[in-house]
Amino acid sequence: MKLNLPFFLLLSATMALAQFDSAAVLGTVRDSTGATVAEAGVHLESLGTGVTVSTTSDAEGNYQFLNIRIGQYRVSAAKSGFKTANSDTFAVTVAARQRVDLNLQVGEITETVTVTEAAALLETDTSSRSTVVGNKQIVDLPLNGRSYADLTLLVPGTTQALRGSLAGRDASYHVNGLRSSYNNFTLDGIENNAYGTSNQGFSNQVVQLSPDAVGEFRVTTNNFSAEYGRAGGAVINASLRSGTNDFHVTLWEFLRNTKLNAQGFFKPQFGKPVLIQNQFGAAVGGRIIRNKTFFFADYEGFRRTEKSLRFADLPTADLRAGQLGVALVDPFSGQPFSGTAVPASRITPFASRVLADLPAPNRPGSGALGVGLNYESLPAQTTPDNKGDIKVDHYFTSRLNAFFRYSRRETNAFAPPNIPGPSGGGGNGNTFVYNKSYAGAATYSLSAISLLEFRFGVTLTDAGKTPVNAAEPHIEETYGIRGIPKDPRIGGGLNTQGINGFTELGRQSSNPQFQNPTVVNPRFNYSHILGRHSLKTGYEYQAINTEINDLAPVYGRHAYAGAFSRPAGAAASNAYNFADFLLGAPSTVEKSTFVVLDYRQRMHFFYLQDDFKVNQKLTLNLGARYEFATPQWDAMNRIGNYDPSTNSLLFAKDGSIYDRSLIDPDRNNFAPRIGLAYQLSPKTVVRSGYGVSYVHFNRMGAKTCWDSPDRSFSG
């Protein structure tokens, strides 16, 4: 499904300072004897935006501000008969529960006392295990490729996925030993997971922020709040920077160049491999209306040209002329050929055309036929990439604010084949990724102790690859091979020709390929403070529509294994494989039907979370979550299954979820969350917890799995 959203408008209610990062500032107001102070006026001031929000301490002296954006803050408390107490400046991090306790001294309310070290250095009110990576770390620590998510590796229990891969995959990590797809990425509290399971996109997240655009991010590896689901590994909650009353502009350029690089152990005959890389951009933020409206925008460009040494195994001039040096059998008559060559009259026009378009070997080859690594090239791989974001925050009243964000990324990379020319063209070829993300959110403060929150996000991805020689004429026109689809999305050129013992000719067999998911993600939350209980409940819906062409080879593949030209009893040799190619006798012919599937999946999530402050030392985090996710179905019912009990095939049809997906939906996904945090001393907090998580979308190999529970315990 294609969904075009040139303009997205969201107007809803929102609470002052709400930034949808689920952070909270809470504490207790006491007098000089340690007794709690009820009905004290408590004020939270944002130093960045100048906005102040107020509340009153309850009968036990406790106060709490919900859904606070990240940034620098100061808390003050005042009551008649006491001096006004101000805290030092402290930082609020994403998804934190920051405690700030204040002590009031007897005196006039007009007098002011600054309370140092009021903000707790430890999070004493949550059992979650998490690590915050701040903007200074993100910007200052060296990042090869400037992927902020690589700093997830600073978190204990995290390792890089696809280890040993040259390119790797952005934001792909194993957390607590689980698959990288078991992580859940959110940006500004809104869905940011990439649901394309092929390599196109090369990232586990849709919006890939520049480090200079990240306010901070939190990696929670265990004991999640019931608000978070769909994760067995980690929840990575990132926040895009917002503007403040002050204007800030950042410019950057990172350069890598061939002249700065070492030669390398193997010196190519063409000289030092070329590597020219520029990563540049700008970020700007500030106010539109002081204390009311703020903006932040960023752009980053990436240009990379790399020439890496490549080798291929090509047939020599003698082999191309049919001089194979072994006794041969005519595959069609069964009679032996005279001598050790394929007669020139028997070499097919197809083979002659393919060989004529191949480059000649340019270096000595190894092996019995002299073809091993006998061709060397230094082709250029280019990667242009552009991405950016724009975000606007607006404070309507002291109880109402909202934000809107738009993110976009475009890349068109070219991966050259090992063999140039019309008869080459292997490899990924032209890889393209187009991502768009629209996000808006709002909250409305019903009272000092309750608020409503609404978030809405849409992500659109077009990602795939096309063959190097897709623009060449169709294979029927050039080579006379019929029966190949002429859909322009497939392209032309030579199809895949696999000759055992030689580098594969023609296009990559899995090319073209694409997966284009569109995700719609609304969320509703309601928070309420009831004495010692901080309650939060909500509902989330997710609709995933994915256009998929992931069936190969749609353009056909021929494989030659010497099954027809080798005499009975003769030892296997790559010469026979090549003889079969010359004679037009493939061992295997494959072709898949070209079809674009239109997958559908719907998810519903409900949760209730209670953070119960039992006493000054003990906090219980109690929650429950229910998740229902349909199996995937095709919009046109093009799905089949096999019933072993009846030895029959089943086909999808209109009707129930089962009728359309041929899988019984799982309706019993209840996920309890139980945790506690106990403060042994000002420097020591003991945490323990138990929880169940479900993964509803994950492809392992060629199979899609639903509802795989991961249970975890930590203490």
Description of the structure:
With 715 residues, this protein is mostly beta strands. It has a 15-stranded antiparallel sheet that branches. Strands 2, 3, 5, 6, 7 and 10 form a six-stranded mixed sheet that branches. A five-stranded mixed sheet has the order 11-16-17-14-15. Strand 39 (698-700) and strand 40 form a beta hairpin.
In short:
By secondary structure, the protein is mainly β.
Write the layout of secondary structure elements.
Layout: E1 23-31, E2 41-46, E3 52-56, E4 62-68, E5 71-78, E6 84-87, E7 90-92, E8 97-99, E9 102-104, E10 112-115, E11 129-134, H1 135-140, E12 158-160, E13 173-175, E14 184-187, E15 190-191, E16 214-222, E17 235-240, E18 248-256, E19 275-289, E20 293-307, E21 310-312, H2 317-320, H3 349-356, E22 375-377, E23 380-397, E24 400-415, E25 429-447, E26 450-466, H4 475-479, E27 496-499, E28 513-530, E29 533-549, E30 557-560, H5 574-583, E31 588-590, E32 597-613, E33 618-629, E34 633-634, E35 640-643, E36 648-651, H6 657-661, E37 669-681, E38 684-695, E39 698-700, E40 703-705, E41 708-714
Parallel strand pairs: 1-8, 1-9, 6-10, 14-17, 27-30
Antiparallel strand pairs: 1-4, 2-3, 2-5, 5-6, 5-7, 11-16, 12-13, 14-15, 16-17, 18-19, 19-20, 20-23, 21-22, 23-24, 24-25, 25-26, 26-28, 28-29, 29-32, 30-31, 32-33, 32-34, 33-37, 35-36, 37-38, 38-41, 39-40
